């Protein structure tokens, strides 16, 4: 295979990154300055944390949030790019002297021009020829900065998932260690995180550290975030980089390009040194209207001075999240406290504020639309719905719910869900289970109703008023599988009490509990004895036994050994009386 000569330097850079991937630190843990950013499209303004992409004509307000006593003067320079092979014109550079009153108090506004594909911000220390030096470097190597924009955006999105996962695991470990297993599994599904199941085999106090180690290998590939920051370069060199960065050795493969992107950034920035400036990447972690910058190298204020490179969202068409229901056949009860609609497929919905103002739209009984607030919660595996804004009487017994909200500036329709509302319902026991309740064992009942999804509790009440709590599950939206423990129950009529969420009175099903039929295994008696031992089950039902003309009556019962002591009629009346009064029944 023939390689073009112009790809070899780039190949060497990538291979060097691969060989030293473990030597490089990918930790952006040094706090940098903050920049206030808001985007306006038409008449709608959003904080930067809710802006997934930019479009030509968008207006961006920038305000550096530097301390009053900031001694080093920074230039804030905004630059638009139009790909790796087309240097930006001079009028795509905008600078603000942050130490001056107007920039400090009002900030600056830039407008995305037609043809722009990326936006970078530079925080450059003031020095002689600063602006012209930076502009010359950018126009001389636009491809390096285009790649930096892509990698910084990808790293920021991946870091949001990683931070959300680690924070939630540690919070759960501190507040509710018993829930760590369940919530970690849901976090991993929501955020597309690699979970090591062997961590749960360790003692509880060691599970948290196990679940959060090897952070460079936790974030799995997410096609949605990668499509949002897709490389806009083309040609053999970019293809080669793509192939190499997807190898396991380079930190890719099953894992996201997070580590590889950081290593590449260090190499790319290192190639841009001049006598005046060196360029260091700044990871932008948005919170509300602020970009909180994180650095992995301390900046220098001696020549070559450090220029912080910050990426804004790419200028591209909207990439809506591929949000889907975990189980499209599952039904949900609107009266269930803290109702959760399980969803997956879009980690950024959980780790960022890009998806915002979500609600579930439900049709009411009178045909009007009801909006129920919905909040994404990664630790619970979906959207938490607040049903308290609507009265139960307003809702139909069965309805459809549509999850919807905004992705940035654009309205977004999520998956549909089958919903049920608690109501007094008719319950039917499967024909095969009509006589299934037998004393002395655990029995299973299949019970059907259109309100099965709203069941909160199931209790069996026997004829003596004793209540037995039953275990149950929901194999289908309209079916309950109930396990009733009757090892120590009493035969006779019984009532199954089915309590639904939000209902004060349980539904009742009249049943009958039967005694188990006696099963006789053997009768042992020695020659000349007047008593023998009968072995079997339910021997309390044995009234008498006749053997070769001899009539035997029960004397004593051992439930543990399932044996009965049987005496002939010649045994004294004292034994027979004691047997009838105390031993059986």
Which percent bin holds the helix content? 10-25%
Low-pLDDT ranges = 1-26, 231-257, 570-585
Number of strands: 31
Distance between the termini: 90 Å
What do these coordinates show?
By secondary structure, the chain is an alpha+beta fold. The chain folds into five domains: about 30-140 and about 270-320, no CATH class; about 150-265, no CATH class; about 325-420, Immunoglobulin-like (Sandwich), CATH 2.60.40; about 430-515, Immunoglobulin-like; about 520-585, no CATH class. The protein contains eleven helices and 31 strands. Strands 1, 2, 3, 4, 5, 6, 7, 8, 9 and 10 form a ten-stranded mixed β-sheet that branches. Strands 11-13-16-15-14-17-18-12 form an eight-stranded mixed β-sheet. The protein has a five-stranded antiparallel β-sheet with strand order 27-28-31-30-29, covered by helices on one side. Strand 17 and strand 18 (about 410-420) form a beta hairpin. Helix 1 (about 10-20) packs parallel to helix 8, helix 4 (about 140-175) packs antiparallel against helix 5 (about 180-190) and helix 4 (about 140-175) runs antiparallel to helix 9 (about 260-270). The longest helix has about 35 residues, at about 140-175. The protein is elongated.
């Amino acid at each position: 295979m023939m390689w073009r000569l112009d790809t070899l330097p780039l190949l060497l850079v990538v291979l060097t990154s691969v060989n030293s991937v473990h030597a490089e630190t990918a930790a952006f843990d040094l706090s940098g300055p903050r920049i206030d950013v808001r985007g306006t499209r038409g008449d709608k303004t959003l904080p930067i944390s809710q802006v997934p992409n930019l479009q030509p004509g968008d207006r961006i307000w920038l305000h550096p949030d530097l301390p009053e006593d900031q001694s080093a003067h920074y230039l804030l320079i905004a630059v638009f790019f139009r790909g790796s092979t087309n240097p930006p014109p001079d009028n795509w550079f905008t600078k603000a002297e942050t130490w001056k009153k107007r920039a400090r108090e009002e900030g600056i506004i830039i407008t995305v021009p037609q043809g722009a594909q990326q936006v970078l911000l530079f925080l450059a220390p003031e020095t002689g020829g600063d602006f012209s030096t930076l502009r010359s470097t950018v126009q001389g190597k636009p491809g390096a900065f285009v790649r930096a924009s892509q990698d910084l955006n990808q790293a920021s999105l991946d870091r949001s998932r990683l931070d959300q996962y680690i924070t939630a695991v540690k919070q759960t470990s501190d507040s509710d260690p018993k829930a760590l297993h369940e919530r970690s599994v849901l976090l991993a599904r929501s955020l597309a995180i690699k979970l090591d199941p062997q961590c749960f085999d360790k003692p509880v106090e060691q599970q948290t550290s196990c679940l959060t180690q090897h952070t460079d290998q936790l974030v799995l590939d997410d096609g949605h975030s990668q499509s949002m920051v897709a490389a806009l370069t083309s040609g053999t060199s970019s293809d080669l980089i793509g192939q190499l960065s997807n190898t396991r050795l380079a930190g890719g493969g099953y894992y996201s390009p997070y580590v590889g992107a950081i290593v590449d950034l260090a190499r790319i920035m290192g190639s841009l040194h001049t006598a005046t400036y060196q360029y260091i990447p700044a990871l932008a972690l948005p919170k509300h209207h602020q970009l909180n910058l994180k650095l992995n190298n301390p900046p220098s204020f001696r020549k070559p001075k450090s220029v912080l490179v910050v990426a804004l969202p790419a200028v591209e068409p909207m990439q809506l999240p591929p949000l889907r229901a975990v189980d499209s056949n599952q039904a949900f009860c609107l009266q269930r406290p803290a109702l959760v609609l399980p969803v997956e497929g879009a980690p950024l919905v959980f780790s960022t504020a890009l998806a915002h103002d979500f609600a579930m739209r439900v049709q009411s009984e009178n045909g009007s639309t009801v909006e129920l607030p919905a909040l994404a919660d990664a630790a619970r595996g979906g959207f938490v719905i607040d049903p308290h804004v609507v009265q139960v009487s307003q809702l139909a017994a069965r309805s459809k719910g549509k999850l919807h909200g905004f992705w940035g500036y654009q309205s977004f329709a999520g998956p549909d869900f089958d919903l049920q509302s608690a109501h007094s319902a008719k319950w039917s026991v499967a024909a095969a289970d009509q006589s299934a309740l037998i004393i002395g064992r655990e029995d299973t009942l299949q019970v059907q109703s259109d309100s099965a999804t709203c069941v909160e509790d199931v209790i069996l009440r026997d004829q003596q008023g004793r209540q037995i709590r039953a275990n149950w599950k929901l194999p289908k939206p309209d079916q309950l599988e109930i396990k009733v423990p009757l090892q120590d129950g009493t035969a006779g009529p019984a009532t199954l009490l089915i309590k639904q969420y939000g209902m004060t009175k349980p539904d009742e099903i009249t049943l009958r509990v039967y005694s188990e039929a006696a099963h006789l295994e053997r009768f042992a008696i020695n020659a000349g004895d007047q008593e023998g031992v009968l072995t079997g089950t339910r021997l309390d039902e044995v009234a008498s036994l006749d053997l070769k003309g001899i009539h035997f009556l029960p004397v004593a019962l051992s439930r543990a050994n399932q044996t009965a002591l049987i005496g002939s009629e010649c045994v004294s009346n004292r034994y027979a009386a004691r047997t009838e009064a105390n031993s059986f029944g």
